[in-house]
Design brief:
Elements lengths: L2 H9 L22 H6 L2 E5 L5 E8 L26 H13 L5 E5 L6 H18 L5 E5 L6 H10 L2 E3 L7 H7 L5 H18 L12 E3 L9
Parallel strand pairs: 2-3, 3-4, 4-5, 5-6
Antiparallel strand pairs: 1-2
Helix pairs in contact: 3-4, 4-5, 5-7
Length: 224
């Protein structure tokens, strides 16, 4: 399976993952081949500052050890999974960016080997994009359940936006949707760390000298 096939598998169901960047009506880019067009899950989006870009939404891996009932990538589903290595994805996205196929990226992942290990892979990918490929465009990084504070800080240094999905407003409600997630320790705590870091670290230490924006999501209508 080549990189474009992997991208197709990993991006195909990302419409279920809200990114916080509203879609807008716009023509799709025309500067790539039919095969590339078929594999590129991009859409026009509007950033918090009003800027309009073409955004790629994808996973680094669809392998996941969690079995959240609402998630199309949950462990209990039987479907073909795929995984990018950090440098493999960074290289592919850099080519897409230089070719005008995508101006920004929203990168998430299934959880494999624990949230900390998975978060390290997302951070490695972002670091390669910024440092090796000198990508200066829009980057939205998902924080994995159970991420550590230094990982949250590093994500804020690399990304324009970070997000932590609370999924539910309480421990009790979360247990009905995602019984293997821990509301306070794994989800709410990383979101609080974002605010703590904003209050204690000057903005010039972050990407482009600004604090990244933050977004979360709740599952509406989900039921086992």
């Amino acid at each position: 399976m080549d990189s474009l096939d992997t991208l197709k598998l990993l991006s195909s169901q990302m419409t279920f993952e809200p990114d916080g960047e509203p879609r807008i009506n716009s023509d799709t880019p025309t500067c790539f081949s039919p095969k590339e067009r078929d594999h590129a899950f991009t859409h026009p989006a509007q950033l918090p500052n009003g800027q309009k870009i073409v955004l790629l939404k994808t996973l680094l891996s669809s392998a996941c050890e969690r079995d959240c009932f609402y998630c199309p990538f949950r462990a209990g589903r039987d479907f073909r999974r795929a995984t990018f290595k950090p440098d493999e994805f960074a290289s592919l996205f850099s080519k897409m960016n230089r070719g005008g196929m995508a101006e920004g990226v929203f990168l998430s992942s299934g959880v494999a080997g624990g949230g900390v290990r998975t978060q390290d892979k997302l951070l490695d990918t972002a670091d390669i994009l910024r440092k090796k490929y000198l990508f200066k465009g829009y980057l939205h990084l998902k924080m994995m359940p159970g991420s550590e504070k230094d990982q949250v800080y590093r994500a804020m240094q690399l990304a324009d936006r970070v997000s932590v999905n609370l999924e539910a407003p309480s421990t009790e409600r979360l247990a009905k949707l995602a019984p293997h997630k821990i509301f306070i320790e794994e989800l709410l705590r990383p979101l609080r760390w974002v605010e703590e870091i904003r209050r204690s670290v000057p903005a010039y230490k972050f990407w482009n000298g600004r604090y990244p924006s933050t977004v979360t999501q709740f599952v509406a209508g989900g039921i086992r």
